[in-house]
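<tokenise_the_fold>
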Amino acid sequence: MQPFDLSSGNAQYLEQLYEQYQLDPSALDPQWVVFFKGFEFGYLRAEEEEETDEGQAVAAPPPPRAAPSAPARAPAQPPIAEAPPDQSPPTYLDRRKRERSDKGVYGLAQAYRQFGHYIAKIDPLGHNRHSHPLLELSEFGLGEADLEKGVDGGGFHGKAEGSLRDLVAQLQSTYCASIGVDFMAISDKSQLNWLEEKVEPIHNRYTFTPPQQRRILCQLIETEEFERFLHNRYVGQKRFSIEGCEALNPLLDTLVEYGVELGVEEIVMGMSHRGRLNMLAHLLHKPYEIILSEFEGADQQDTQEGDVKYHQGYSYDHITRQGKKIHLSLSPNPSHLELVDPVIEGIVQAKQDYLHDLGRNRVVPLQIHGEAAFTGQGIVAEMFNLSQLEGYRNGGTIHVIVNNQLGYTATPEETRFTSYPTDVARQIQAPVFHVNADDPEAVVHAACLAIEFRQQFKRDVLIDLWCYRRHGHNEADDPTLTQPLMYQEIGRHPTVCEIYIKQLIAEDVVTQEESDEIRERVQQTLDRCQEKARRLQVKPRTSVFGGTWQGFSSAGEDWEIDTSVNPRTLLKIAQKTAQVPEGFSQHRTVKRIMEGRLAMGKGEKPVDWGGAEMFSFGSLLLERIPVRLAGQDSQRGTFAHRHAVWHDVKTGERHKPLAHLDEDQAEFAVYNTMLSELAVLGFEYGISSADPRRLIIWEAQFGDFVNGAQLIIDQFLSSAEAKWQRMSGLVLLLPHGYEGMGPEHSSARLERFLQLCAKDNMQVCYPSEPSQIFHLFRRQMHRNFRKPLIVMSPKSLLRHPRCVSPLEAFTKGSFRSVIGDEDIERPEQVRRIVLCTGKVYYDLLAGREEKKREEEALVRIEQLYPFPEQNLREVLASYPATEQVFWVQEEASNMGAWSFVQPLLDEILNENMELRYVGRDEAASPAVGTHKTHQEEQQEIVDQALEPANEVVLADVQAEKADTGSG
């Protein structure tokens, strides 16, 4: 600790430190703790020494200026009553001792609020802590002798007129029973006050009526019997049972029923596989016979690949007990358990926007997690960080952690170092309710608190549902191999149904006979539904074109459409985006760029890439098609080509020119995102899957940054339509191109995307002209189907003098999947066709001009998937004398498009055409590390492609160099 000035200027700061010391000494630097302990000891000794020899007190001097005052939240002290005539008035020391006692009581109450959850009875298996050092009476200057003394309650909101013993009992019943309230990480005073006032007056225990208790019991029995039925009838089949956490279903039912009363109209859920089938049956009311038919082996109705039953989604219009309607939807989820989290958040925001839910009240996200995955998978922390950023707020999520205290076979001690799996959420200061799943009434009460808090404050809230797993990770797994002692305890432990039935019988709410009748009815229903399931040979098909997808369809054979724009529209866009708001001080570079784009709109100069983007976005906005662009530098553009947001050089004020084209235009949103790819891409995917009417674009800072989001691409973007019939029109802009920037910023891993392509699941394009990206964006939105679009976008081509398009290219035609060589005057004399894609075309073009060659035709394949076979055949047919066809690429032979296009080209080319590869040799790293070596390799690619006398491809040259030790 640095030397500290104790002058009056620092008095307030010192008082704040002292207040923190009284609440939580561990939060301070240890040297401050020593300082305050010494201060208190010395101050007490000084007061005691002021007693006179006759036992009378003299007036004590005022404390030093820097002496801390009582904590701000301590209740005001009542005036000291006038002493009776036969008693001496209280001495100063008496008053100080009383004040210290009151502070101790206040500190005790605060400590239970802060640390009480550590000794709460939240573990159904009984492994709870019974004491905590920071809750000992001695920590607050109190002892056993003080327990019978009267206290004023220390700010506790419950009825606390009595002894210290009574107060401690009330604090323990509130904060140390079946619910441990963990909310002192919150810094918002209004949230703290709200939570205290909600839980303390009722000691955090709601009194349920007999009908409410019977409903909870019915839900528990349904849950238990469903799992037992599957266990006995379908031995060995995976179902990821919820047994040990049956209280999850009453919890979810409460969120739905009470949520409707608080204005919720729709809940969108994400959930891992544990308990999913049970939730589908009892919350979403997916018919038993449909679920059982999947166990019976009913086939998929269509040609889609499908997915296992415990990954499937479902939706349902639920009518509450009060007769109100709420739409419930469960999103499909892959086995990477938390991957769905940001997807759900994006879906919810899209639905809120569609419903104009500006208050974020009507659509609520609900995420159900496993405890080990919640802690271990980094996408959870990314999601929390994203939740309060501009463009990503949706009013808060309710998180339920199914905390069965095991992650497959790993114990909590092996998977985290913190007390709770929810500690990862401390970064967003969300309240947590740790609750014992064997106390279903406490679970339901926690659910009420959670949904009410979310609706009140529009912030995340967590329920940590402590339970156990009665079977192994799946029903074929033997958990006794790794947790023998734990499973001995579980084997002896009664189910929550048994516990709750015993409680209700004791309370005269139900009889044993009544509970048996409920159980028998459930069993009979399941038996009947199994018979129906056995007659189902084909699973019913789920409608995928409802809601916002109404009017869309599956993709047909024709993917092309006219995307040209009237010249007047382009001129309007150029003029509007060049207008500077009154009083706005524009950066001179931005001014120059916008003046250039105005000239482009007038047809006075060709259009570059930034201008083409602007025209595509602007034209869609004027057609009332919203555009959302997100990426780490998307407002300016990583390579400073876009300037979608201007910054006033004097005030810092921002201006989005594309948002001011017309009063009747659609919304234009562009966001600089946090430095994360996985969660952000998941969120954008979620929006695109829920709202096909918006152009949703995610842009990587460099193309290789998409590596961090590969899970979203593999498990959602490329396969969701095949697995779950869930479609998306998400666009990925991935800067790609070999320009001597080293291994990390050269490749967007084109080969990975092509390897994922099958059955027309997505589009992969590498456009080489500004007009192409213009038509590509517009084509994406003007067809009546949606497919993900992967774009290898440029870096150096953003300013390449030859990478421009005339205005006429925007006012006519559409995207061209293959571009022939328009510079060849006599195509009948062409002997060699050089096929390429993307940036390398300009290197080849410059090389051909330098060598003054006319025998080679440079043909660009702008869309690699779906592969444009018919268009390519037509272009190749225009060069009838072709003898050789070279595929030229910058990437190594085991990367790029070569391995993908080779078998396709072999089928297209005539027998008299020889197909050869020109490019870098196979490599482990995408590119070399020095600019000089890169230039040499790039020149060799051009030379090999354009020198007919030299039949050795670059790969052979590199091999020879390696053999001789040169280069």
